Amino acid sequence: MEECCGSKPKKEHHHNHEGHNHDHSHDIRETSVFRMFLPAMISFVLLLIGISFDSFIENTWFKGWIRFVWYLFAYIPVGFPVLKEAFESIKNGDVFSEFFLMGIATIGAFAIGEYPEGVAVMLFYSVGEVFQAMAVTRAKTNIKILLDQRPDEVTVLENEKPTIKKAKSVEVGEIIQLKSGEKLGLDGELLSEKASFNTSALTGESKPDTKVKGETVLAGMINLNAVSLVKVAASYKNSKLSRILELVQNASSQKAPTELFIRKFAKIYTPIVVFLAIGITFLPYFFVEEYQFRRWLYSALVFLVISCPCALVISIPLGYFGGIGAGSRNGILIKGSNFLDILANIQNVVMDKTGTMTEDVFKVQEVNFNKDFNQNEILKWVNVLESKTTHPIATAIHDFVGEIDHAVQLENIEEIPGKGLKAEINGKELLVGNLKLMKQFNISYNQNAENMVYTLIAIAYDQKFVGYLTIADSIKENAKSTIEKLKSLNLKTTMLSGDKSSVVQFVAENLGIENAYGDLLPEDKVNKVKEIKEQNQSVAFVGDGINDAPVVALSDVGIAMGGLGSDATIETADIVIQDDKPLKIPMAISIGKQTKKIVWQNIILAFGVKAIVLALGAGGLATMWEAVFADVGVALLAILNAVRIQRMKF
């Protein structure tokens, strides 16, 4: 994150060719607030005493070199760090930094005998800088607290005895004992038969998630049951949470166009202002009858203070960082401020069907059997037969029927590729599969079955058509309201899927999606997105982030659903929704729009106030006090506006 910087202890300096960049991310807990404000407090006390001697306490000694030395001592605590920064910036090729502006403005004030104003300008500038440092640090700390809630210590079983160890020192393969209510410190594999976890630290949702033996559990999850055992699968620094945290904290390296423009603008704008200040000092000599050097130099110094681009340089990156933080708080990983800008301007949301708008879990929707057959008995047979295969349809039937009846004896079981299964029971033939299987064995069936939208499982017994089951991927709970919200944001919606067209059209009609296309191969999806982009329209693609990699690469922004379990998704997508809730799609777009709105509010505020006070300063109508407001005051207002987004509800 780029910030306008100031005089604070123990700062890290990072200079680059695009401009100065001083990181305010040092820990406020280590550098106490009192210590940060101490130089300003010393200067403030000395300044007040000096002003009292000047205006309120009669004396004969507070003048000349004594007065100068007094105000110099008041200036040094806040002025020296800034002058040092200016010198370091010049050494690194950045002459016209805000430190340089404040340095020459305040030294100039001393040169013409305006000691109190010189001290006051630097004092308020430094106070503003401390507030900026606190705002930036708090924004970063808030994100870290939101995301990284892992315990520092974990209980490890060594020779079946519980031992407390630092989480960072635990090695892969060790066994963690997790008590009820404890938070898991590292990623691992559940060794206990079953356990329920609160995953809110990872997904933003507190709904319990039940895991069974062998399933992956992640750092940050809270155990809700009795004692559970977890085998460590990744080191502390390689956990999923560490990766997500690293991506969010480094997201500011992906600059938004507005942010890049402001940085470039500041590099051009600042030297222009310096030369204008020189002009304000000397040009009136040729146009004014009674030219007073001291008066015009003062106006030029006021002009320099006002011109400091601090409000823009700090508040704009802070606004974007606030947007990234707001996303993190809601389980949305945004991998750069540039993607916030793209989201704000998106026109089309193109989505995959399976796993995005549907659950990716097949369920039996309907059972339609001939009344001449015993439905429960036939379903038991079908359940036993389907248990011989690993197809998702078998799982759906098993979930619907229940436990397998081991008393059922099937013989001569045979799988017919692409069609289904055949077996014998009670000496008679049982067929379970699609309608092609029925045709192969000359089983006559109801013609209406061919027009079914859902996947159809036809059943025949003893050469007679028993009926059918329909199986479908159920639509997600909030999918319909997601599409309604996208439409309320004036976005066009399109569904692309490899599933059969009738199913895709059915889902799209149910949800209110405008355009839907099925039976698509990955290259067909690419062509559909190209058609939209050829109309000069921006596209956000929502999918699983892996199978749809070509489309994600082509779209303006790629959004991955349920990326929590996949490293590949976290790497490839621009935005990762950490749970499977489609409502997070319009939420991410709303965060982008709100961030852009706040950033432009700050740009207009800063330019507006500075333009007015610059004009007054150039005409000699503004004093250093108005200049301080135009610089530090506007910067603080912009910061307060920028941090608002972190508290907003979306």
Describe the structure in your own words.
- The chain is an alpha+beta fold.
- Helix content is 47%, strand content 19%.
- It contains 20 helices and 24 strands.
- The strands form six sheets. The chain has a seven-stranded mixed β-sheet, with helices on both faces.
- Strand 16 and strand 17 form a beta hairpin.
- Helix 1 packs antiparallel against helix 2, helix 1 (33-55) packs antiparallel against helix 4 and helix 11 (375-386) runs antiparallel to helix 12.
- The protein is elongated, with a radius of gyration of 34 Å.
- It starts with 11 loop residues before the first strand and ends in an 8-residue tail after the last helix.
- The model is unreliable at 1-30 (pLDDT under 50).
The value of Rg in angstroms is 34 Å
Integer average pLDDT: 83
Counting DSSP E segments of at least 2 residues, the number of strands comes to 24
Strand content is 15-25%
> Gap between N and C termini, in Å?
24 Å
Give, in spatial order, the strands making up the sheet with the most strands. Answer: 12-24-23-22-13-20-21
Helical fraction equals 40-55%
Unreliable segments (pLDDT under 50, ≥5 consecutive)?
A: 1-30
Largest beta-sheet characterization:
7 strands, mixed
| Shape type | elongated
Structural class assignment: alpha+beta
Query: DSSP helix count?
Result: 20
